[in-house]
Amino acid sequence: MNQNSQPNRQDFNQYMVPVFAPAQFIPVRGEGSRLWDQQGKEYIDFAGGIAVNALGHAHPVAVKALVEQGQKLWHIGNGYTNEPVLTLAKQLVESTFADKVFFCNSGAEANEAALKLARKVGLLSGSARKNKIIAFKNAFHGRTLFTVSAGGQPKYSQDFAPLPEGIQHLPFNDLDAARAAIDADTCAVIVEPIQGEGGVITADPEFLKGLRELCDQHGAVLIFDEVQTGVGRTGALYAYMNTEVTPDILTTAKALGGGFPIGAMITTDKYANMYAVGDHGTTYGGNPLASAVANAVFGFINTPEVLNGVRTRAQIFAEGLKRLNERFGLFEEVRGQGLLIGCVLKAEYAGKAKDIVTLAGEEGLLALVAGPNVVRFTPSLIIPEADIEAGLQRFERALARFVGA
């Protein structure tokens, strides 16, 4: 590629390690819930960077925080603390069950920190055998070797054996299986309140309550992976707040920085204090630049106006998708919470979710899959209602082409 020429999609194939298969168009500019590609074509964004762009693109609140902090202090390493990270930690603690926060750069890193802490909890229990981790089938917890092993989707882990041991996968929402598996050797249970990548499947309230009771009974740590469900996505600040269950550890990332990479593990003093200086770490985690942006984004979202607005927008999506399904009859159900929405294809269209998403892109709509059978929407939490309606019209055109194909 000539350094002076415009990069193109073919450059991806030439220069990038082939672990992604991106769309053929390249977005170059975004504003709110709209994007434009290199040719100037406009798209409405129902993908939200996979539940990351909680305030859409180039939101003034996030941009202002980025520019102001960028002119002051970006990075100093973890031999020092900084003002933005302390402010952000205080916001998280005061808004949740937690007493302490560990900052990192991604959801996978947050889950890595949580799982390592759980193993330390087991070690400090006095039982050398207390190291078993219970996870669930179809879960997704990240791509590091530890988190991909905890995830319950073999397609992501099977090529990288031998995998970390001591992780047992159970059927999601099966409390009887959990009762049979969780015992004195269990150090942790890790669960998503809503399985995002696994198909937008909500955990039954009784299932989560049962896990809480089993963890208390056997001295195990209950970890909620809220990487996708956190920071307003479900209409609550965190999805655990929609249940009557409080975890011991919660992981958060994606929307936390509104597009700037940042993750966090939050927990109570009881467990936080089991980590000692040097037990875990990160070079970039909690740097001033990421923390300043996350402060602005988190503070903006953590208001009744925005959180109530998520529920209002979810209702508009629900009604619009119901109308589309009455016309096309493609979806078995539309499920999820708030603006984490999964359109589940009927059996006769199994495996075709990606085809629909590709057609949506051609019609000027960004959407996602959640496995081969589910079309997923995770738009901005403040997407204008007019953009929802316009996006659903584009989705309708894509579905019409799909049915006609």
UniProtKB/TrEMBL annotation:
Which family does the record claim for this protein? Answer: Belongs to the class-III pyridoxal-phosphate-dependent aminotransferase family. ArgD subfamily.
- Sites where the protein binds pyridoxal 5'-phosphate: 107-108, 140, 225-228, 283
The Swiss-Prot or TrEMBL record lists the needed cofactor(s) as: pyridoxal 5'-phosphate
Q: Name one GO biological process term.
A: L-arginine biosynthetic process
Protein species of origin: Acinetobacter tandoii DSM 14970 = CIP 107469
Top-level division of the source organism's lineage = Bacteria
Q: What is this protein called?
A: Acetylornithine aminotransferase
According to its UniProt record, where is this protein located?
A: Cytoplasm
Concerning Pfam families, the annotation shows: Aminotran_3
Q: Where is the secretion signal located? A: none
**Which reactions are catalysed by this chain?**
N(2)-acetyl-L-ornithine + 2-oxoglutarate = N-acetyl-L-glutamate 5-semialdehyde + L-glutamate
